[in-house]
Amino acid sequence: ARLGESLWEFLPRSVIGGFRSAIELERTRLRRKELGWWSIQNHILQAWSMTLVLFGGLIVVFGWRILPYLLLQAVLGAGLLETVNYVEHYGLLRRRKRNGKWARCSPRDSWNSDRLVTNIFLFHLQRHSDHHANPGRRYQTLRSSQESPQLPAGYATMILFAMVPPVWRYVMDRRLMAHLGGDVTKANIQPRKRARILAAHGLDDELRTAA
User: Which pTM value belongs to this model?
Assistant: First the structure.
């Protein structure tokens, strides 16, 4: 999620982009194994097949009247997942090395919300920074880090804030700037708003130089 990007702009970009990325990554993985797309080892087709079996079984048991509810819960589930993704990464950008490659994920690269209620109901999901920095660590042992930027409230509250872009920007933009030491050039900025955001932070000269 980018600085200046609303949740409603982010959702279609993330869903469509994630879908395309998943297909490309899986196609590359299968190609390395000299397998075609329709291989039984295709993880995407495996997941889709499980969904079809589950939905088909429920339709057999409860009839076609259950289909709208299945579709609704699927949309809500995907929407909630992407909204949490938005909340966890808003405005943050991993630094690049001198060779142009991205640096390894650190606890500074995602937002945490180390709060009791979120911790109990979401199984340490709020300690998201440690998950990024140490992806092999089990969720029960995820740790807090003083290096991680902290959300001002729990996930439930932040999700509600995200649904109202002016409220979200009021709460989060200054917190993001504080985390970045006031240097907006370190943020992941919405491209079409980049000139306006940089100018708002007094970086007009940088814009002219870059042009």
Answer: 0.85
